[in-house]
Task: inverse folding
């Protein structure tokens, strides 16, 4: 098929890590190798940092936390690579989750001294759920790190995935000499301070070659022992096991020193999956299909603080997306065409004429899109896998400026469409309840309502444990439940029935007493 060549050269992946493990630094290095940015070695420069992280939201600048998810595309060795960055902060876990629905594989960055950290574990759960192939980069080997065997054990046990080291470190910290790259059978030497991009590797197909001593002296003995052991334990690398998300290849390096990054990138190009088939409610959609389809996984507001514009990020799943062609917005049953779709190449946004599966297209949006929306050439498809989770934290949201109630309503509506939080409306009280997964979102909402919509809100506490969607085939029981629990019933934004459980006990009681009612903890059921 015509698009086959384009599909085969695409790799769309997400980088995830616990904050501070080095995700931003690694992303910058990828961009450097792709020629998308030029300032080699200037990693600490704020300028690069700003462009490599999507620093679009003012609040993000204020807090120095990456609350936004950005997309960066670049060309490398005739491949089109799309990196989807994810917010490291745990309060934005849902944002990260949604981004992971748009990737075909993931690179997990781990701090060699700290090992697997809580946020990494959480993110890995999402990868496991979706069977996303994972590569692990153990970073900061230029600093004292844990023993590599311990690190591998930790990854295997804590992230619950098989591991297969494809590079092996020679010492760590001040004695770090480099790595032996098993994938390409070469020794890669670390020269602190040089931040070498090229010419730091020597081919060594035979590790017993005495020449090895010339490069790393007595460390050669330990390296040979390690490699023998590693080979004995892990045998030959099985690419299928990686693609099936059973085994994670592991690389060691130092992103800050640009070390071990190119090796991983080269291997990644070889082994990482091309755009994968995607499930819809109706059928599986394959990248090779002729007709275009895609879904919105992210809506980003406030790209330009002077305008209240939004960009809907669409993952192209099949066919070819073309500028100015008519497409069906399935939920709205509306035909739309896009005059200025954008692509994201490194830090730059540019208008594009076409995009292929794996690519992320930015569509200018005036409020038509919601997370999860599908666009096609006419087929009524609904992409799956973008649920909202039952939130963890709740507050009543009240209007603090009676003159601005319209603005407040509009602001809340649009922020909910973006997936910033979830809104429930009490059936008895008609009060509005905001539910989030992290405390920070309440502040983000308040800040954005004020700065983007000119509306003021205040929060009031509510005693709530969980909001749970309820459905049942037993209509009489459902009606009975709603009547009895009317004070604890609410509608979600789509008008679906939600039970407001104030304690785990009351939820359990409700489940026990009403066996024909299904209690759903995510919005996709
Ligand atoms: P994140 O996006 O995962 O949160 O991490 P980020 O890349 O911002 O890195 C966190 C800190 O770790 C940064 O230092 C960064 O320079 C440092 N770092 C990243 N990779 C390496 C490495 O390979 N070796 C060493 N020694 N340090 C590394 P910072 O001082 O917190 O920030 P900055 O002042 O450098 O921006």
Result:
């Amino acid at each position: 098929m015509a698009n086959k060549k384009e599909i085969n050269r695409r790799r769309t992946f997400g980088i995830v890590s616990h904050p501070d493990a080095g995700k931003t630094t690694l992303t910058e290095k990828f961009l450097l190798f792709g020629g998308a940015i030029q300032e080699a070695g200037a990693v600490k420069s704020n300028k690069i940092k700003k462009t490599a992280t999507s620093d679009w939201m003012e609040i993000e600048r204020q807090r120095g936390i990456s609350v936004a998810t950005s997309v960066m595309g670049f060309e490398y060795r005739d491949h089109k690579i799309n990196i989807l960055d994810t917010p490291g902060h745990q309060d934005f876990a849902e944002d990260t989750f949604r981004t992971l629905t748009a990737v075909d594989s993931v690179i997990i960055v781990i701090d060699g001294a700290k090992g697997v950290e809580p946020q990494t574990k959480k993110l890995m759960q999402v990868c496991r759920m979706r069977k996303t192939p994972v590569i692990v980069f153990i970073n900061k080997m230029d600093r004292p790190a844990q023993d590599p065997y311990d690190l591998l054990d930790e990854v295997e046990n804590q992230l619950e995935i098989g591991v297969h080291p494809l590079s092996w470190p020679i010492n760590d910290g001040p004695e770090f000499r480099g790595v032996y790259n098993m994938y390409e059978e070469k020794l890669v030497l670390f020269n602190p301070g040089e931040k070498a991009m090229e010419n730091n590797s020597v081919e060594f197909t035979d590790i017993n070659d005495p020449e090895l001593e010339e490069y790393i002296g007595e460390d050669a003995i330990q390296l040979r022992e390690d490699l023998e052991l590693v080979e004995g334990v892990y045998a030959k690398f099985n690419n299928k096991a990686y693609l099936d998300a059973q085994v994670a290849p592991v690389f060691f390096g130092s992103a800050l020193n640009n070390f071990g990054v190119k090796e991983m990138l080269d291997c990644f190009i070889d082994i990482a999956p091309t755009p994968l088939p995607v499930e819809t409610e109706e059928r599986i959609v394959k990248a090779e299909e002729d007709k275009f389809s895609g879904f919105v996984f992210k809506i980003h507001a406030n790209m330009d603080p002077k305008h209240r514009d939004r960009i809907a990020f669409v993952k192209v799943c099949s066919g070819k997306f073309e500028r100015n062609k008519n497409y069906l917005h399935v939920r709205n049953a509306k035909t739309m065409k896009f005059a200025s779709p954008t692509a994201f190449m490194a830090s730059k946004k540019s208008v594009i004429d076409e995009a292929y599966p794996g690519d992320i297209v930015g569509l200018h949006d005036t409020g038509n899109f919601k997370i999860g929306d599908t666009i096609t050439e006419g087929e009524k498809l609904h992409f799956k896998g973008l649920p909202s989770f039952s939130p963890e934290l709740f507050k009543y949201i009240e209007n603090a400026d009676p003159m601005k109630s319209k603005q407040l309503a509009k602001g809340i509506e649009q922020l909910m469409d973006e997936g910033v939080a979830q809104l429930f409306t009490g059936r008895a009280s008609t009060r509005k309840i905001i539910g989030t997964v992290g405390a920070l979102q309440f502040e983000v909402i308040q800040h954005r309502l004020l700065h983007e919509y000119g509306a003021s809100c205040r929060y009031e506490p509510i005693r709530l444990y969980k909001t749970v969607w309820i459905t049942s085939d037993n209509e009489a029981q459902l009606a009975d439940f709603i009547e009895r629990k009317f004070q604890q019933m609410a509608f979600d934004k789509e008008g679906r029935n939600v039970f407001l459980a104030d304690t785990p006990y009351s939820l359990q009681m409700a489940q026990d007493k009403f066996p024909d009612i299904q209690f759903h903890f995510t919005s996709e059921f």
Q: What stands out?
A: Confidence is low (pLDDT under 50) at residues 40-69. Residues 183 and 405 are 61 Å apart (CA to CA). The domain at 393-520 is CATH 3.30.70.3280 (Alpha-Beta Plaits).
